[in-house]
């Protein structure tokens, strides 16, 4: 239930952040400063500063949270109970959310993650079911629901935007990666990474056309120039 801050340089823990009383299920670092947010099964979201072991702010929710900063580091989104997205201003988050988007509740699965696109216009909601949702970050309208990939065992599969915010990709149980065009909603590719298990991690390089996918082993991907 404790968060640890690790220095990769000398492989030591710099600081521990105690406070949550149950497992931490969401963690998001501010893109602009030393603050980060965490969500836990204790139904709270906490706001932290890397320089202090004490929590800087606390929010009580009605259920399991997922949370993420926007690319400017000005607001953060919290997904609550797998049916609501609440947007908070970082400077006044104790006043409550400035926007709440209610989604249709799906009892077959839970939300497992939220991500903003780099242009800040879209929010991607990951689930442990067979679909992910793309919503408008300003109005909360569901733009697309992407499915057709394997996830029968309710695994947490990480979905990602490409850095230009145009494509969305997710791994699957059978080791393949599915890619959709965010604007049209059409599937544009299925990539076979020869993964032996479910692809639970998928991260794009923020600057270059490369990404990494991982099950128990990891694959690095490069574009083919002739295509």
What does this structure look like?
It is found in: Nucleus. WD repeats lie at residues 17-52, 149-190. One of its GO terms (biological process) is lncRNA catabolic process. This protein has 227 residues and is mostly beta strands. The protein has no helices and 21 strands. Strands 3-4-5-6 form a 4-stranded antiparallel beta sheet, with no helix packed on it. A 4-stranded antiparallel beta sheet has the order 7-8-9-10, with no helix packed on it.
Please tag this protein with its features.
single chain; 227 residues; mainly beta; Methylamine Dehydrogenase, Chain H; 4-stranded antiparallel beta sheet; globular
Task: Tell me briefly what this model is.
Belongs to the WD repeat SWD2 family. The protein is mainly beta.
User: CATH superfamily of the domain at 1-104, called what?
Assistant: YVTN repeat-like/Quinoprotein amine dehydrogenase
Percentage beta strand = over 45%
Main sheet strand line-up? 3-4-5-6
- SS element count, helices: 0
Q: CATH topology of the domain at 1-104, which one?
A: Methylamine Dehydrogenase, Chain H
Mean pLDDT: 91
Number of strands: 21
CATH class of the domain at 1-104: Mainly Beta
- Rg, please? 18 Å
The helix-strand sequence is EEEEEEEEEEEEEEEEEEEEE
Low-confidence stretches: none
Overall spatial form = globular
| End-to-end CA span | 47 Å
Structural class: mainly beta
CATH architecture of the domain at 1-104: 7 Propeller
Protein name: WDR82 protein
Keywords: Nucleus, Repeat, Transcription, Transcription regulation, Transcription termination, WD repeat
Main location: nucleus
Family: Belongs to the WD repeat SWD2 family.
């Amino acid at each position: 239930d404790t968060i640890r801050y690790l220095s990769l340089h000398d492989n030591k823990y710099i600081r521990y952040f105690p406070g949550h009383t149950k497992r931490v299920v969401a963690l998001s670092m501010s893109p602009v400063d030393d603050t980060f947010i965490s969500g836990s099964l204790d139904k709270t979201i906490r706001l932290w500063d890397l320089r202090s072991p004490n929590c800087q702010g606390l929010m009580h929710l009605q259920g399991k949270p997922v949370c993420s900063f926007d690319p400017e580091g000005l607001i953060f989104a919290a997904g609550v109970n797998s049916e609501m997205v609440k947007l908070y201003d970082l400077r006044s988050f104790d006043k409550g959310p400035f926007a709440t988007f209610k989604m249709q509740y799906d009892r077959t699965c839970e939300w497992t993650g939220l991500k903003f696109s780099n242009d800040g216009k879209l929010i991607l909601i990951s689930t442990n079911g067979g679909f992910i949702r793309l919503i408008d970050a300003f109005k909360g309208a569901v733009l697309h629901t992407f499915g057709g990939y394997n996830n029968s065992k309710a695994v947490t599969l990480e979905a990602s935007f490409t850095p230009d915010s145009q494509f969305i990709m997710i791994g699957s149980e059978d080791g393949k990666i599915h890619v959709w065009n965010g604007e049209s909603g059409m599937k544009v590719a299925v990539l076979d990474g020869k993964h032996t298990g479910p692809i639970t991690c998928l991260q794009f390089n923020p600057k270059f056309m490369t990404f990494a996918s991982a099950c128990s082993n990891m694959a690095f991907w490069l574009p083919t120039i002739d295509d």
